[in-house]
C-alpha cells in the first residue's frame, strides 16, 4: 500500500525568495527561507543540508522531492532544478513538480471566498506579469500566460465576480485594476516551499511523477541576456 503522506523535500527557487522545507505525515517539520535576492546559489545547498539533518533527527527521511516548476526567474529555476534532479539521481527517489502560480494560489486560499477567483501574479518586468486564474479551491481555470496589464485587463471576469490578485506582481497592477470587484491582499504572498505540500501530495496520490532525466522547468519565455549600459564597450571612431 502506498503511503499517501510520505516524507517530502520541498524546494522553491522560482522568484527572489529561496525556500526549502521537509514535510512528514502531512505536516511541515523543518524549513528555511531567505528573502535576499540573488542568493539562491549560496543558500540552497546549505538550506537542504540543514532541513535534512533536522528531519533525520525527527526520524523522517524524505523519499520524494517536490519542486516548483515555474514560471519565474530563469536563473532561480535552473538552480532549483539542478539541485532537485541531483538529489533524485543521487538518492534514487522520484520528483514531482508544482507550477509556481499554483503555490501562490494555494497560499491565498484562506483569504478567498467560495465564489471568488484567485489571480496570482509573478512580476515579469515593466507592466508584464506571469499569471493565470484559479478557483477558490486552488484549481487552475486558465493556462499560464505572460500578460501586459492595462485598464482593460480582466474586465469581463471582473464584471461577473470578485478576483483576488496576489503575488509580487499584483501591487504594480493595482492602479490599472480599479474595478470594485478587484481585490488585493494586504501583504505580498510569495511562492514558499511550505505551500507546495498539498499540491505535491495530490500529485503523489495519482503517481504524477516527472521523468528526472528529461524534465525541465517551465520558463514560459526564452532567456535573454542583457548588458548593463555602463558595461558596453564604446565603438571606436574611424576616420
Describe this structure in words.
Residues 38-150 form the Gcp-like domain. Keywords: Hydrolase, Protease. One of its GO terms (biological process) is tRNA threonylcarbamoyladenosine modification. By secondary structure, the protein is α/β, with parallel strands linked by helices. It has two domains: 8-99 and 191-206, 2-Layer Sandwich (Nucleotidyltransferase, domain 5); 101-184, Nucleotidyltransferase, domain 5 (2-Layer Sandwich). 25% of the residues lie in helices and 22% in strands. It contains five helices and eleven strands; from the N terminus they run βββαβαβαββββαββα. Strands 6, 7, 8, 9, 10 and 11 form a six-stranded mixed beta sheet that branches. A five-stranded mixed beta sheet has the order 3-2-1-4-5, sandwiched between helices. 41% of the residues are buried. Residues 223-236 have low confidence and may be disordered.
Major sheet details = 6 strands, mixed
Task: Spell out the helices and strands N to C.
Answer: EEEHEHEHEEEEHEEH
Q: Please indicate the percent range of residues in DSSP E strands (runs of 2 or more).
A: 15-25%
- Regarding CATH, which class of the largest domain? Alpha Beta
* Structure annotation, total helices: 5
Please tell me the CATH architecture of the largest domain by its name.
Answer: 2-Layer Sandwich
> Rg to the nearest angstrom?
19 Å
Q: How many structural domains does the protein architecture include? A: 2
Q: Which stretches are poorly predicted, pLDDT < 50 over at least 5 residues?
A: 223-236
**Oligomeric status:** single chain
* Shape by Cα distribution: globular
GO molecular function, one term: peptidase activity
InterPro entries: ATPase_NBD, Gcp-like_dom, T6A_TsaB
Protein name: Probable glycoprotease
Domain Gcp-like: 38-150
